[in-house]
C-alpha cells in the first residue's frame, strides 16, 4: 500500500513500522513545506499524520479508508525539523475504527495531535485501480 502512495513518497515520508493497528512514519520539513510565517504549513503536518493513520488502519489487512480526521496544532515545526507521527488504534467496531496520531519533533516535543476515523471496505474489495491490497512494509532507513 505505501509503495503506491505517490503523494507520501514524493514528500519524503518514510514508513518506519506498521503492524497490529499501530504505525510510525517520519518526514523532514523542507524549504518547500514552509508558509509565509516560515513555519511548516499545517497541510503537510496533517498529511504526515494522515499517512501514519492510513498505515495503522490498513495494517490489519482489509482495505480501509478514512471516514474523517481532525488535527490540533500544538507547536510550530520549522524547516529542517524531522517529524515523527505515531499512530495508535483506539478501537475497532464492525468495519469502523478510531485512531490517534501524535506528531512530534525528533526531540519528542509534541507538534500536533490527530484523530482519524476509518472505514474498512467490504471483504474482498480491491483498490480503485482493481489491484488487491498488499501489506505495509518499512521503506528502510533513508536518513
From TrEMBL:
Molecular-function annotations in GO: acyl-CoA hydrolase activity
Region spans: Disordered: 121-143
Record domain Thioesterase: where: 39-112
Domain of life where this protein originates: Bacteria
Coiled coil: none
Membrane-spanning ranges: none
Keywords recorded for this protein, A-Z: Hydrolase
SUPFAM superfamilies, sorted: Thioesterase/thiol ester dehydrase-isomerase
Family: Belongs to the thioesterase PaaI family.
Protein name: Hydroxyphenylacetyl-CoA thioesterase PaaI
